[in-house]
Amino acid sequence: MSSVKVAVRVRPFNSREISRESSCIIEMSGNTTCITNPKVPPGTSDSVKRFNYDYSYWSHNPRDPEFSTQEMVYSDIGEEMLQHSFDGYNVCIFAYGQTGAGKSYTMMGKQEEGQEGVIPMICEDLFRRIQETECADLKYSVEVSYMEIYCERVRDLLNPKNKGNLKVREHPTIGPYVEDLSKLAVTSYQDIHDLIDEGNKARTVAATNMNETSSRSHAVFTIFFTQRRVDKMTGLETEKVSKISLVDLAGSERADSTGAKGTRLKEGANINKSLTTLGKVISALAEVASKSKKIQKGRLHPVPRLGADLAAAREPRRQLQDGDDCRDIAGRYQLRRNAEHAEIRGPCQTDRLQGRRQRGRQREAHPRAQGGNPEASRTAQSRGHRGAGRGRMRQG
């Protein structure tokens, strides 16, 4: 099972695109997404770019037989993430894309039948499963928080009266956290629904040429899910805690396309700055590199470390490439676990270490390679083992 999965979704034309009689340049077949460059002559190598993802959702025309509904998106993505949280894992879903791409619709949806997004559906499903499985030996508790990152300032959406800039701190055990962020206990889906509605009203939105209700901030809705089980034989209680991070990123934008001026222009600059930083994180993680790279930090930078996948938002073709980079993160690193520690090695380091071990085994099998001197052979064997040991220490 891959630790990172990527899905792409195509939305219907909006009123602006319909009035311009725009043409759709994206096609989907299975999990393959193709984007055509209208500025390049057809039939050339650069005219069509193909990308393969875990999921491809065609939501362009409701009349198409392959049309993907909100429920289909949740069935593929949300249900799996919820199961992982019951298993005790931290999970995250990022929605990213250009402004007006439909991120908030996919994540939040609308308050209409069949139009609910991933966040309300995963919350409703969570409490449905709690009701079905809770018993005397198994108890659950759920807490939620909701924040936005607006112009590099962190705001508590569940306590909008607190206008101050909340601080992002680093804990040695749990990692980054937001100081003084409200964490409210909930006992039903209706409780969460009311809090989401309250938070959405406090979120910063504004109209631009590209989007009438453009989100001007990144929003992070987090569910803290605790399971307490009592062992019937010993009477001991065990606790399993997981975190579900649901992130609706603000859309990347170009000032000449959005017509942004004044405050809107400043907002767009901060949005693009944070998304560029996040894009650098993706690129750095996806590269096959043996040394760490310095990355400029922003308020959005620590957020993915709250148990999240990494993603960024740029222009359509760049967005698809970022999706490929996200998948590379899972494939380029080897996770090694034992009872004492966990190591993450990049492919270059792993190859070098395996090479040292192989050379050591060859020396043991062929002592004459050392000039027929048994003492030299024993010395070579010893050096081979020490070299491999040093390799492990450097990589650990």
TrEMBL record:
PANTHER family: KINESIN-LIKE PROTEIN KIF1B (PTHR47117:SF10), STAR-RELATED LIPID TRANSFER PROTEIN 9 (PTHR47117). Residues 383-396 have a biased composition (Basic residues). The lineage of its organism: Eukaryota, Metazoa, Ecdysozoa, Arthropoda, Hexapoda. GO terms for cellular component: microtubule. Residues 341-396 are annotated as: Disordered. One of its GO terms (molecular function) is ATP binding. Belongs to the TRAFAC class myosin-kinesin ATPase superfamily. Kinesin family. The keyword Metal-binding does not apply. Residues 3-304 form the Kinesin motor domain. ATP binds at residues 97-104. The keyword ATP-binding applies. GO terms for biological process: microtubule-based movement. Signal peptide: none annotated. This is Kinesin-like protein. It comes from the Eukaryota. Keywords: ATP-binding, Microtubule, Motor protein, Nucleotide-binding.
